[in-house]
């Protein structure tokens, strides 16, 4: 994929969003931002919308085992009561989920009607295979979309991320960004402010690092490919990108080498022992146990670190937007969404599920459980704001505002590129030849793109 194609895709996404908003604003029906109506109890004025239109239909949802899935499963009965549509739900750990979903989609039998999808991971691949049903027509059709659905309520950036090659292929159910999650009590003891720059982050990690007492300054992912999604924000902060202006892989550029080096030094000097074996699960557990001063990872883990049944530091946690780098203030944003496979035989019934699951009521319920969402009204609803963590709210909103990139390269074979980049991160953590490893990864990246795009 050339850089021109990447820019064209982004421009098409914005044009497509504006077109959708033009139709969706007419569907909003004047519903006030912050409204808390549940689709399980349609409000007055919705009598013309037929929620029972597809009563008796059966649909199948295949999902990743994710906080969103855990939240929605207990209330699936509300959807069935509202619509008369029976839903079969199946969720699996992410690796198994992706494998099963890819197998079923490639068979083209229509066995899946609704699927979780992360376009930053598989969007270009699935679109190239023709596996997505574009959702534009559903959003714009007042006979299929409830008048209070209010598509314009979604923040622009997550919708852009659910748009592939100018087509809306999913509706976001959550979002996450790389965030600074830190021990507020320890920062106060040391007189440290939340880090605003990369230099601040390193200084804070150094000040907190006390390995003799099992307190490590910072937790960064070090486990190869699993680390790339968080390393990406450092890449952007140094002014780098996956692809250069010429559209060619740029992992051996100076900004990329600087990002690898900074990340490796930070993890090696102020991280836990054996950090190259740690992914998010190990680092979140260390933070919960009070062994990390700073956790640099996805904002979705607020749920874990604030869980009093699992975290010894719940109530002592602070949050800050990802800091500004030497060349840019940017952060990787990631979103899971719900999509309809092109092979589904129950597309309209599936769309009914999508709009129920991504309604204002469901977004608010998710946010109240600590899962960041894409609807602006949820963040403004008094039912949330009266007891919310304002520091976290500000950090997440800032992340949405400054984000210009996702956590993955804009190519078809995302996982293959991640696998090529992972060893560079490990080499940097171990103090190896970063420039040599980066050059090797860049050549592998070129070969991957040449073969699959």
Give structural attributes:
single chain; 453 residues; alpha/beta; D-Maltodextrin-Binding Protein, domain 2; 2 domains; nine-stranded mixed beta sheet; 46% helix; globular; SBP; Bact_solute-bd_prot1; TAT_signal
Fold and architecture overview:
- The chain has 453 residues and is of the alpha/beta class.
- It folds into two domains: 3-175 and 334-404, D-Maltodextrin-Binding Protein, domain 2, CATH 3.40.190.10; 177-332 and 406-452, Periplasmic binding protein-like II (D-Maltodextrin-Binding Protein, domain 2), CATH 3.40.190.
- The protein contains 20 helices and eleven strands.
- A hairpin with a 2-residue loop joins strand 4 and strand 5 (167-168).
- Helix 19 (414-429) runs antiparallel to helix 20.
- The chain starts with a helix and ends with a helix.
- Mean pLDDT is 91; it is low at 1-46.
- It is found in: Periplasm.
């Amino acid at each position: 994929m050339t850089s021109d194609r990447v820019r064209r895709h982004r421009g098409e996404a914005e044009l497509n969003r504006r077109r959708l908003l033009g139709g969706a604003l007419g569907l909003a029906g004047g519903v006030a931002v912050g409204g808390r109506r549940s689709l399980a109890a349609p409000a007055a004025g919705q009598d013309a919308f037929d929620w029972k239109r597809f009563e008796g239909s059966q649909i199948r949802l295949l999902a990743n085992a994710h906080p969103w899935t855990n939240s929605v499963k207990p209330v699936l009965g509300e959807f069935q009561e509202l619509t008369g549509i029976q839903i079969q739900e199946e969720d699996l750990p992410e690796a198994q989920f992706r494998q099963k979903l890819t197998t079923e989609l490639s068979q083209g039998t229509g066995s899946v009607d609704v699927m979780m999808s992360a376009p930053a991971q598989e969007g270009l691949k699935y679109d190239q295979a023709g596996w997505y049903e574009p959702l534009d027509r559903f959003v714009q059709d007042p006979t299929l979309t409830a008048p209070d659905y209010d598509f314009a309520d979604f923040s622009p950036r997550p919708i852009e991320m659910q748009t592939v090659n100018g087509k809306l292929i999913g509706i976001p159910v959550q979002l996450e960004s790389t965030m600074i999650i830190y021990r507020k009590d320890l920062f106060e003891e040391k007189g440290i402010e939340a880090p605003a720059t990369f230099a601040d982050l390193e200084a804070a990690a150094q000040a907190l690092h006390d390995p003799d007492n099992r307190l490590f300054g910072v937790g960064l992912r070090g486990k190869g490919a699993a680390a790339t999604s968080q390393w990406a924000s450092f890449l952007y902060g140094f002014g780098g990108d996956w692809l250069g202006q010429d559209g060619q892989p740029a992992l051996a550029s100076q900004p990329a080498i600087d990002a690898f080096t900074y990340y490796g030094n930070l993890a090696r000097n102020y991280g836990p022992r054996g950090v190259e074996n740690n992914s998010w699960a190990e680092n979140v557990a260390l933070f919960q146990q009070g062994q990390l001063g700073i956790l640099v990872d996805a904002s979705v883990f607020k749920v874990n670190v604030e869980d009093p049944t699992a975290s010894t530091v719940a109530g002592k946690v602070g949050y800050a937007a990802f800091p500004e780098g030497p060349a840019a203030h940017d952060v990787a944003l990631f979103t899971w969404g719900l999509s309809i496979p092109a092979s589904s035989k129950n597309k309209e019934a599936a769309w009914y599920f999508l709009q129920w699951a991504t309604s204002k009521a469901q977004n608010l319920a998710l946010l109240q459980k600590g899962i960041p969402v894409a609807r602006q009204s949820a963040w403004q609803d008094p039912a949330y704001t009266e007891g919310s963590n304002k520091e976290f709210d500000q950090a997440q909103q800032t992340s949405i505002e400054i984000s210009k990139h996702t956590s993955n390269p804009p190519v078809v074979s995302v996982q293959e590129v991640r696998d090529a980049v992972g060893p560079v991160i490990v080499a940097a953590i171990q103090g190896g030849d970063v420039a040599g490893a980066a050059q090797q990864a860049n050549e592998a990246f070129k070969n991957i793109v040449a073969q699959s795009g």
